[in-house]
Design a protein that fits this description.
Blueprint lengths: L16 H10 L8 H14 L3 E5 L2 H11 L7 E5 L8 H5 L3 E5 L10 H14 L5 E5 L8 H10 L4 E4 L7 E2 L2 E2 L6 E5 L12 E5 L2 H11 L22 H11 L2 H18 L6 E3 L6 E2 L5 E5 L7 H10 L5 E2 L15 E2 L7 H8 E4 L7 H14 L1
Parallel strand pairs: 2-3, 2-4, 3-14, 4-5, 5-8
Antiparallel strand pairs: 1-9, 6-7, 6-11, 8-9, 10-12, 12-15, 13-15
Helix pairs in contact: 1-8, 2-8, 10-12
The structure holds pyridoxal-5'-phosphate.
The site of pyridoxal-5'-phosphate has 14 residues, from α3.
Length: 378
């Protein structure tokens, strides 16, 4: 019998999820309406410190509605972090916008304020500023929001925070997702908490969130018969799924603590291996440590794929860092602003980086197994 499978990051249920789901069954609110949806929204806004939220089918849907709320139309430019998952920028294309990708800074792996400023200057010269800036908080760590906001404010450009990976992380004491005009979270199966699939848009603009709920429910006007003045979407979260979310929210802090502990365990284990560097952790906030990531130094003979292969042979899942959007065949025709003169920081992190198993169900024994397999390589 092969060793048990160790996942990168898989669902980890607490005790209350089933209770809330059962409540949905008992009351027959098996629909995109009901107490769980309302309460999940209330409880999440309470946790992050926003006033309003709409629970949706996915984080991608949340980004899409946030772009629409900020008036993104065909031909509008939208800036977006390049080192991210495609879901961050796909909604720009849903609205026929024009993405411009921004490189990372090495200190946080997140959007480089320098590259952002260069992109603004370019657009200013071209006479067409971006409509929106989408800032991603990668792998659970906040971007340097003060510096990014200062630049965006100078150009009067609103920010959408893609906090899909960073629920519970803070920047100078403030929760990620609450610093821009709109913030979004994801509850996909691999995220720090999951509803099997789902997302949330949050804001302090209650009118905006009300509109998001309206669009997400097919834009049905308040008439005695079906009446539509606008295009609508079927984006509302179901009351069953929201029950899972309410339960998961109760174990979020526990999950963050475990993720941090795993990161520290890797850090301690690799401290004497010169070739391995942990993802940098910034002083300005608390990461949620969604995934423990490393980079291998240029001179390392062992490459990320070597580690992945050894782990895969032992039934352990690891993954490459996101492949930057400006390197994707679908997106490479769009402009990109680098943090450096030659090449880019995001490509470098992609080439040298690796996400290690960061499943909160990992035992100490699992961690020892992973670590010794990696250490044997060096
Ligand atoms: C997971 C993820 C999303 C998309 O969330 P879904 O709920 O899967 O649609 C968006 N952005 C980032 C950075 C993500 O990691």
């Amino acid at each position: 019998m092969a060793n048990k499978r160790i996942y990168l990051s898989s669902p980890h249920m607490g005790k209350a999820e089933e209770v809330f789901v059962k409540e949905a069954f008992d009351t027959n609110w098996i629909s995109p309406l009901g107490a769980n949806v309302d309460n999940f929204e209330k409880e999440l806004t309470h946790y992050v410190g926003a006033t309003d939220a709409a629970a949706l089918v996915s984080g991608t849907a949340a980004i899409h509605l946030a772009l629409k709320l900020l008036g993104t139309k065909a031909g509008d430019i939208v800036f977006c972090t390049s080192l991210t998952f495609a879901a961050s920028c796909n909604p720009i294309m849903y609205e026929n916008g024009i993405p411009i990708f921004i490189d990372s800074e090495p200190g946080s792996w997140n959007m480089s304020p320098k590259a952002l400023e260069d992109a603004f200057k370019y657009c200013e010269k071209e006479g067409k500023l971006p409509k929106v800036v989408i800032v991603v908080h990668l792998y659970g760590q906040s971007a340097d929001m003060d510096r990014i906001k200062e630049i965006c404010n100078k150009y009067n450009t609103p920010i959408i925070e893609d906090a899909a990976e960073s629920l519970g992380a803070t920047y100078k004491g403030v929760q990620t997702g609450t610093m821009g005009k709109y913030g979004i979270y994801s509850f996909n199966g691999n995220k720090i908490i999951t509803t099997s699939g789902g997302g949330m848009i949050v804001s302090n603009n209650s009118k905006g969130i009300e509109k998001a709920k309206f669009w997400a429910a097919q834009s049905r006007e308040d008439y005695p018969y079906y009446y539509h003045e606008e295009l609508g979407y079927n984006y509302r979260m179901s009351n069953v799924v929201a029950g899972i979310g309410r339960g998961q929210l109760r174990v979020l802090d526990e999950r963050i603590a475990k993720k941090k502990e795993m990161f520290e365990t890797y850090k301690e284990a690799f401290k004497d291996i010169n070739e391995i560097e942990m993802m940098p952790i910034c002083e300005y906030g608390n990461s949620n440590y969604w995934l423990s990531c490393i980079t291998l130094k240029d001179e390392s003979k062992i490459k990320p794929t070597d580690i992945m292969e050894v782990l895969a042979k032992n039934n352990i899942e690891a993954r490459h860092i996101w492949n930057p959007m400006h390197k994707q065949p679908y997106y490479e025709k769009f402009k990109f602003f680098s943090h450096i003169e030659e090449g880019s920081v995001s490509e470098d992190i992609f080439k040298r980086g690796l996400c290690l198993p960061s499943d909160t169900k990992n035992t100490d024994k699992d961690m020892k197994r992973i670590i010794s397999l990696i250490k044997e390589l060096f």
